[in-house]
Amino acid sequence: MSRTFDLRSLLEESGVGAVLDELDRELVGLAPVKLRIREIASLLVVDKARAELGVAVAKPSLHMCFTGNPGTGKTTVAMRMATILHRLGNVRKGHLVAVTRDDLVGQYIGHTAPKTKEVLKRAMGGVLFIDEAYYLYRPENERDYGQEAIEILMQVMENQRDDLVVIFAGYKGRMDTFFQSNPGLGSRVAHHIDFPDYTVDELEAIATSMVGSLGLNLSGPARQALGEYLSLRREQPNFANARSLRNALDRARLRQARRLLETGSVDAAMLTTLEAEDIRASRVFDAVRAPAASEEATC
Amino acid sequence: MRITQGTFSFLPDLSDDQIARQIDHALAQGWAVSLEYTDDPHPRNTYWEMWGMPMFDLKDAAGVLVELRECRKAHADCYIKLNAFDSTRGFETMRLSFMVHRPRQEARYRLRREEGAGRLIHYTLERA
Predict the structure, then answer these.
(1) pTM of the prediction?
(2) Residue of A11, A50, A225, B84 with fewest CB within 10 Å of its CB?
(3) Chain A hits for B58, Cβ within 8 Å
């Protein structure tokens, strides 16, 4: 007798569907990322069904690499990833331990191994997120302790696949070089996910939700000013997508606060509305107002 | 003679799975787990060697089991015990402590009687 499986209800049962929908709703853009996460979640659900049938399933390698420019949501997605993997039963506890080179690599001989192991132990049962992972490898210094950390990482990634999932994150180009110089590590990372930059439209959508979560709103002209601001800011160096946007909004709040104090008496609408002038006061617009002054670093 | 010390010591030895579940319970209570070993399990010997630092901030038993495996490899002929320390104010003490490894050849002790003044007798546990 052949059993049939309702994969959809299996997905619902695990509660992953809700997380995926939340991901769709709360994160703007990032279409390729969402697609890949859906694929991974589907694979895990299908594997679960196979396992119930008694078909031997090799545990998939879930180590991932997130590449993308700053502020494209790598950490945010990693946190969601931990929840998704937990709901699917692939990690036991579902917590995220976020580290950088400093947390893994020691300062003197013999310091690195215990430090890396300590971090790995803390991450077991959950997800280890290594931000700016390419700093682990410093080719210019052959005695750099980073290599030692990489070797321990590789060993644990291979032998204790059931115990933790490692996510590397960093800028695309530098991560590619990193994996080229550490082929052993690259081959153990099954999923390479690239985070695209946000378009101006997507950034505006993000702005709306950010402003909303601050309990503020944008007036019509302010919205237009923000659109112009974003198109200008994108072209400038050091643009960090959503992070730059958040900083810009923070500065706009400062200007709004000053403006309101100068006004003296205010009503509720004024307290919660960012006006166009709060945004247009930004130095980014200086370049338009006086093109000659564009040399100066802007923010 | 089977050495009995700490929790569960009158039960058969716990399997690694059972140990993992005890550790998970301890971690869920917010206790910090640590390992200690000794070749002298005399009941009056409270000072066992520490195997590394107590492991703070762990979420899952797998991390402790890694250390336990390494400790067993390095000290197969010692007794190893696992302690769970509760740092809650008012407790600040071990809440759980049990043996997780014993050597193939258990330590042997014998009771020694010593006559004192009058009819006084001192009893001492002594390594055989």
Answers:
(1) 0.83
(2) A50
(3) 121-122, 124
